[in-house]
C-alpha cells in the first residue's frame, strides 16, 4: 500500500487481490516495467528486506513479493513473471553451441567467424574478439624469439652474461620487440578499418559523430558568445 509520510512516498506489502486495482493487474507480466524489474533485482542483490517499510518501492514490486512464499526471494518472483528473460541479455544455448562449433578461441591461427560474432555479440564485442585473435597470432613469433634469447643466455653460463655478446643480444632483442610492436600497431589499424567496413560500424560512428557535430552547432547558434 502506498501512502505519504513526511512528504515521501512509502510502501508496505499488500495482498495479491489488490493487484487488480492497477492497470494490467489481470496480466502479471504487465505489472512490471523494465525500471521496476531492475530496481527489484537491485534490492535483492543488496539484501534489502522486503517485509519492512522501505521508501519508493513500486506497487508492482510489492505485488510480486506478496505472491511469493516467505522463504523465496524477489528474484524468484521476477523469474516466475518472466521479466528476467525479457530485459536481461541472456545467452541462447543453441546459438552459443553453433558459435563454439564454428570457432575455438584457443586456436590462434584460425580466422574468427566475424559474421557469426557480430550476429551474436554485436559489432563492438566482435571487434574485441578479432583484436584478441590477431594479438595471440602475433605473440607467437615474439614469444618464440624471447624463448630463444632466454635459452641462449642460460646456455652461456654466468661468465657469458657479463660479456659483450650478452649486451649485444639484449640490445638486439629490445630492437626486435620495438619493431614487432610498431608493425603490430600498423597491422591492427588496417584490420580495424577492414573490420569496421565489413560490420558497418564505421557508418554508425560517422552518423553519431555528425549528429553530435550538428547538435554542437545548434547550441552555438542559440547561445552566441558574448562580445569581449
Automatic annotation (TrEMBL):
Q: Which residues cross the membrane?
A: 138-155, 167-186
- Name listed for the protein in its UniProt record: Anoctamin transmembrane domain-containing protein
Its keywords, alphabetically, are: Membrane, Transmembrane, Transmembrane helix
Question: Which topology term describes how it sits in the membrane?
Answer: Multi-pass membrane protein
Does Protein biosynthesis appear among the keywords? Answer: no
Record's subcellular location: Membrane
Query: Which GO terms of the cellular component aspect does the record hold?
Result: membrane
Here the segments flagged for biased composition (Basic and acidic residues) are: 216-228
Q: Which stretches does the entry tag as region Disordered?
A: 203-228
Superkingdom to which the source organism belongs: Eukaryota
> Principal localization?
membrane
Name of one Pfam family that matches? Anoctamin
Q: Give the Anoctamin transmembrane domain ranges.
A: 119-197
> What is the species of this protein?
Zooxanthella nutricula
